[in-house]
Amino acid sequence: MASAPQFNLKPGVSDRLYAAIGDFLFAHRLSVDPVNYAFVHRVLSAPTGPLAAAVAQITDGGVRLTSRDIEELGSAVATGTSPGDGVDASNAEEAMQALVARTQMQVEGFADTVAAIRAETRGFGRDLEASAAAMRGGAEQAIDITRLASTMLDRVRAAEARMASANEEADALRRELETARHDAKADPLTGLANRRAFEEAFEAASGAGAPICVALCDVDRFKSVNDRFGHAVGDRVLKVIAGALREACGEHLVARYGGEEFAVLFTGCAVDVAADTLDTARDAVAAKRYRLRETDAPLGAVTFSGGVSAHNDGESLGSVMGRADRLLYRAKDGGRNLIERDAA
């Protein structure tokens, strides 16, 4: 695979920058679209900046950039996070705030519509009462009543149309809010809960008083997979492990904690049960033989290691996660493809 071209750009030489961007896109087999063009422009315009450094790290050894790399790097450098850590919290928060503002406007619009209908109804009532008192006056007053009723009917129909439109907008907002809430707590790659959702779930479970165990898992030699086969294959590996954890752990919460790390919140079971459940997932992943989709070449063994620790009453998440992390590294030191647990 082609590595990122190197260029010695001089400030103000726009024609050379334009040519360099084209060469970069061609070398990485990227389409010439506004997103890719803008991304490469940022990389080549600041060759010593953080984005260029991140690109150099990924493309070291001749690896090509993918569209997903560009998406992740663009948001990661902007927020100071690492690619693959999950949902961009800043963007999710901004989206949620925008939806809240729109919802507030919707509520105020409902209030205005209802107030207008009430005012029109009161006015209609006064006019009807005045006209009714004069009905004995003859046909002319009867015509006034008919005209008044017709006018009010038109207003009611207009109000109904406004209310129907407002209801449609409210339904759309409710769907967007539900999607935003889900996205704010979901990892976009694997569909698992993200770190924020895991931490919130831990707080809720620890407050309920039920037994809790926390597991921390890490893909063995994941950097080697990315280096040898590229990030697209690495993403597939993460999805495979996410699926195995989800299936084995059932009702227990599985989250992508960051990069190639996964966390599991086991509630209502002892540490041995939690560790055995996690070991079922480990065994399922290790038993498979993976091949590259494009070439059918063997990928080699894919395994993960994990550490499982029981939560003590009143203990913080950081404390129990620290123990799980130490157990995880003990599994790594013990040869990998292992699950370590607290001593009985």
Trace the largest sheet across and list its strands.
2-3-1-6-7
Assign an overall shape.
Answer: flat
pLDDT average, as an integer? 78
The oligomerization state is: single chain
Question: Total strand count, please?
Answer: 7
Helices and strands, in order, run as HHHHHHHEHHEEHEEEHE
Radius of gyration: 31 Å
Gap between N and C termini: 51 Å
What is the beta-strand fraction? 5-15%
Q: Which structural class do the helices and strands define?
A: alpha+beta
Please, how many helices? 11
User: How can the largest sheet be summarized?
Assistant: 5 strands, mixed
Low-confidence stretches: 1-5, 7-12, 76-90
The portion of residues assigned to helices is 55-70%
Could you explain how this protein is built, in words?
- It is a single chain.
- The protein is of the alpha+beta class and 344 residues long.
- The protein contains 11 helices and 7 strands.
- A 5-stranded mixed beta sheet has the order 2-3-1-6-7, sandwiched between helices.
- α5 packs antiparallel against α6, α8 (222-229) packs antiparallel against α9 (231-249) and α9 (231-249) packs across α10 (271-287).
- It starts with 13 loop residues before the first helix and ends with a strand.
Task: Please name the defining characteristics of this protein.
alpha+beta; disordered N terminus; 344 residues; 11 helices; 10% strand; two-stranded antiparallel sheet; 62% helix; five-stranded mixed sheet; flat
